[in-house]
């Protein structure tokens, strides 16, 4: 009886992650942005509308380092924050 398996019959075809999922930041390239965002959420009783600028900066970091797909900020809901303007009170 043979115990060897034939792995050559099928070829693995990698595919990109589904929209909305992205790789973890194993090297901590955006850790400071994440920590700044999380501190803002904590300081503002988790009212995420008050931390939109920090969220935008974190996502920009991820896009710049290819940890997520490059998307226009307007498409991500940050059109009003482009150029440093923010409607949320600090």
Q: Which outline best applies?
A: elongated
Q: Which regions are unreliable across 5 or more consecutive residues at pLDDT < 50?
A: 85-90
Q: Biggest β-sheet: count, sense, barrel? A: none
Order of H and E elements: HH
Number of strands: 0
Strand coverage percent: under 5%
Q: State mean pLDDT (0 to 100 scale).
A: 81
Instruction: Using the CA coordinates, give the radius of gyration.
Output: 20 Å
Helix content: 25-40%
Instruction: Label the structural class.
Output: mainly alpha
Total helical elements:
2
End-to-end Cα distance, whole Å, is 72 Å
Written account of the structure:
There is one protein chain. The protein has 90 residues and is mainly α. It has a domain at 30-70. It contains two helices and no strands. α1 (31-43) runs antiparallel to α2 (52-64). The longest helix is centred in the middle third of the chain and has 13 residues, at 31-43. The protein is elongated, with a radius of gyration of 20 Å. The N and C termini lie far apart (72 Å). Belongs to the COX19 family. Pfam families: CHCH. It is found in: Cytoplasm; Mitochondrion. Its main location: cytoplasm.
Relevant terms:
mainly alpha, single chain, 90 residues, disordered C terminus, 29% helix
């Amino acid at each position: 009886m043979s115990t060897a398996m034939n792995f050559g019959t099928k070829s693995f075809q990698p595919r990109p992650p589904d929209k909305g999922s992205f790789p973890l930041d194993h090297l901590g390239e955006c850790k400071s942005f994440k920590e700044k965002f999380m501190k803002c959420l904590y300081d503002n009783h988790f009212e995420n509308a008050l931390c939109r600028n920090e969220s935008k900066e974190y996502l920009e970091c991820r896009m710049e380092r290819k940890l997520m797909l490059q998307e226009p900020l307007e498409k991500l809901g940050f059109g009003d924050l482009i150029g440093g303007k923010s409607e949320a009170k600090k």
